[in-house]
């Protein structure tokens, strides 16, 4: 109707376009990384770390929290879980914007190709984080923003193409299907 055509002319007149995702790259040097075994989700003492330990570590890395457990730090005394290994270079790519599921699948496929050549990494991760104040979440519930607005999932992909899928939602949200 008339309302629709008025909106169309408004959008075209003001040249409002979908925001292009913003991409940033960074290199993390001498990064302490947890040792993982794809078959050991609970981890084993002195052999591998658990999924929970990895998830916590990943949060620290993505938020650029120091991992050296300095007592003088007012921000964090967190340290990398044991056992761990120091990686000379780790690459962090952040894509911010509205990203459709098909693009996420495409990203996953491209990441899996990384293992073909060169075989440098034992595992890699892809974290998809919804906006904390997003109106929707999984299933048919509204997204509850009560405290932190948790709304994310994380793939951990191993060289043998095994993978872990971790999900986090707020206490008032439905669990994902």
TrEMBL record:
One of its GO terms (cellular component) is ribonuclease MRP complex. Signal peptide: none annotated. GO terms for biological process: endonucleolytic cleavage in ITS1 to separate SSU-rRNA from 5.8S rRNA and LSU-rRNA from tricistronic rRNA transcript (SSU-rRNA, 5.8S rRNA, LSU-rRNA); tRNA 5'-leader removal. GO terms for molecular function: ribonuclease MRP activity; ribonuclease P activity. It comes from the Eukaryota. This is RPP40 protein. It comes from Ploceus nigricollis. The gene is Rpp40.
């Amino acid at each position: 109707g008339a309302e629709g055509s008025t909106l169309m002319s408004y959008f075209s007149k003001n040249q409002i376009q979908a925001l292009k995702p913003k991409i940033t790259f960074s290199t993390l040097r001498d990064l302490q990384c947890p040792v993982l075994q794809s078959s050991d989700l609970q981890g084993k003492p002195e052999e591998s770390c658990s999924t929970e330990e990895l998830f916590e570590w990943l949060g620290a890395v993505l938020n650029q929290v120091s991992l050296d457990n300095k007592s003088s730090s007012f921000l964090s005394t967190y340290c990398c879980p044991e056992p761990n290994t120091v990686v000379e270079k780790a690459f962090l790519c952040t894509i911010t914007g509205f990203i459709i599921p098909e693009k996420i699948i495409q990203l996953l496929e491209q990441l899996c190709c990384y293992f073909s050549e060169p075989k440098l990494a034992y595992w890699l991760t892809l974290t998809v984080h919804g906006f904390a104040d997003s109106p929707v979440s999984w299933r048919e519930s509204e997204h509850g923003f009560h405290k932190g607005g948790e709304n994310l999932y994380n793939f951990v992909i191993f060289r043998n193409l095994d993978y872990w899928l971790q999900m986090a939602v707020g206490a008032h949200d439905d669990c994902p299907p």
